[in-house]
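protien #1 (seq + structre)
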Amino acid sequence: MNIYQKLIEVRKAVPYLKKNNKGYQYKYVSSSQTLEALRGELDKQGLLLVPKVLDTNVTTETVENTDKYGNIKKTTTYFTELKMEFIWINAENPEEKLSCLWYGQGVDIAGEKGVGKALTYAEKYFLLKFFNIATDKDDPDNPPKKDNNGQDAGQKNRKPLQSKGKQTTGIKTNKATQDQLKIIKNLKNDKKLSKAEVKLIDAELDKNPTEERIDQIIKRIEELIKSRTSAKKETDVSRNKGGVDNEKSKREETKEKVLV
């Protein structure tokens, strides 16, 4: 077989690759997965793939960020671009070659991995596109099939979610309950809380917190009030014994603490 016939045999052997690797917000086909799927058939057909870098371009960008302590940190990003040529060689007839121009890119913070990332990117997508390997079938990001009316065919067989005999949309709502808000309101009136702490509580309520978050706030307020109640009792006992500096006690009692 000539080189073109062999390449067609490779394409027949790998019609599709499923995206099994998970990224931050999506799934993808990795470079190793692509090579593993193709290498056996490439060896069988006696085909070699030789990559060649024709030109490079590296662009740097430095960004300043301030951390929570107010320290300024600089981060430099290296964007590497490669102009490449991939050459197919028929091992049975080395004079028979097929050359393809290609492009690759890679982003790195340290800098030394930019070229490697660009090479990996270029090789993976060259193989996927050269052999027309599909990667979207049966994947979550594949658009759902439509029926003749343009509706999602899968919707017909779906049953609505049930909760205590009532239909729901399937969306879990767990906003703060009225009972929780009443508890918060009563706790805010406690004189052991400072005005600044009450403002912090109001700021949290403005964020429309969930039930779980409200429970955390209530627990924290109750612990704070309890600790100050105990501290006041101890102070009163000490004062009766005459063993506490009154001025120091006043400063401690009026000291504001961060609530949330």
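ok now protien #2
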Amino acid sequence: MKPKVITHTPATPPPGAPSAQGPQDAGGGRVLRATVIASGAPGAPAAAPAMPAPGGLSAAPTTVVSPPGSAAVGRRAPPSVVPGTIRRGVDVSLRQLSERFPGARPEVLQQAERLLQDTVIDTLSAAQAARWGDEAQRHYGALVDASLQIIHSDTLQASLRHMARLHALLEVVAEKWQAPAKSSLRFWKSDAGPGQVLQASQGELAQLRQHLSQALPALRTLQSELQAISGELAPLALRLDALSLAAHYLADAVSAGPGTDADPRAYALVQRASALAQTVLHIHSGMVLRQGSQHHLDALIHRIQDTVLMALPAWMEKVTLATQSRPLNDTERYALAQQLQGLLGLLHIS
């Protein structure tokens, strides 16, 4: 910051007034002095350069130094101490849990150990004991509801109906096309042309293929959601199992404490342990059926993508091109009929 220079120009004294005392230059003129206000560090004067006054007068600078400010020093209050009781969770180790539950898996015992170490028996109320593991059970119920919504979704059910109708149409075409042999040298009826048989079903076949093609993105979304549900159920079963073991251990600890005769928490924890173990059994028993439902949806998507949208149009094109210029011979009819039987096998949904 540059110093400020304030120049005072004296007024002309009246005639006969005594002249003010002050420095004069060599010509007898008065010298103007500049007042400089320093803004630097305290105690360090800042000199301003002399500026020539009007009329050739030289100015002698005068420095004014501002006094340094004093910083206030704050005091820290001593910390307050409130007496209390330190609450700790259940003191248990993996060895103790493995001895108490010898058939449990190690990952279940590890989760049970963490649950017990985070639980303070003295602050565990009867209401909390009655709700032990309730959140995990409700999460399982939400996953089951989501799985049922996928299985009964309109898109999936409509796609299954379209596939069944498509299979039935092609089965009728195959039955009318293929005929029992009249002799050892003829395998087909001479009047059973594939082009004529397919002509009556072309419109409905095209409509079914269009519906299935439009449903394919939604079916893939359902497939991803069902896979996510299956992925959540495995770790949830471990947590429910750990909650059940922890409830059993807490019930024993509550019953063994002093003055805990007929403690309602012990009874509630035993009931919750049994309910949680039953939920784990539901998850494991439904795992096979759930995997079957997943495979069923995967197979439907593959049938639509590979058979309905690719193989079936290719076969229909072969029939159209083969019957466009001339009648089919027995070898060509037999080859196309075998291909149709293969398509029927791929489209069949068990």
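Residues 128 and 165 are 55 Å apart (CA to CA).
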